[in-house]
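Researcher: Sequence recovery benchmark, item below. Answer with residues only.
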């Protein structure tokens, strides 16, 4: 369980201001969170496989094929400067 001094120290480390009249409420909330963490740590998870999602779902995948035509030249036609298929930009850092 956290003490009032612990709450002040955590607030200082987090760079947040906790008014003196709110310290008790923050202390109670933080102690509740730590209590929940302790309850979760007490659960026996031996033999439980890690999972990425609570429901066993798979994504439908689409066929990997080109759906758009190459418009590289069209896009570069409006560029101020192009060389060897690359956009040239002015130097901004000296």
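Model:
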């Amino acid at each position: 369980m956290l003490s009032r001094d612990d709450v002040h120290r955590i607030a200082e480390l987090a760079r947040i201001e906790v008014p003196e009249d709110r310290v008790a409420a923050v202390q109670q909330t933080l102690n509740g969170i730590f209590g929940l963490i302790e309850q979760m740590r007490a659960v026996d998870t031996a033999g439980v496989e890690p999972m990425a999602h609570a429901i066993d779902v798979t994504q439908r995948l689409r066929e990997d094929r080109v759906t758009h035509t190459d418009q590289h030249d069209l896009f570069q036609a409006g560029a101020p400067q192009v060389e060897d298929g690359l956009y040239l930009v002015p130097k901004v850092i000296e």
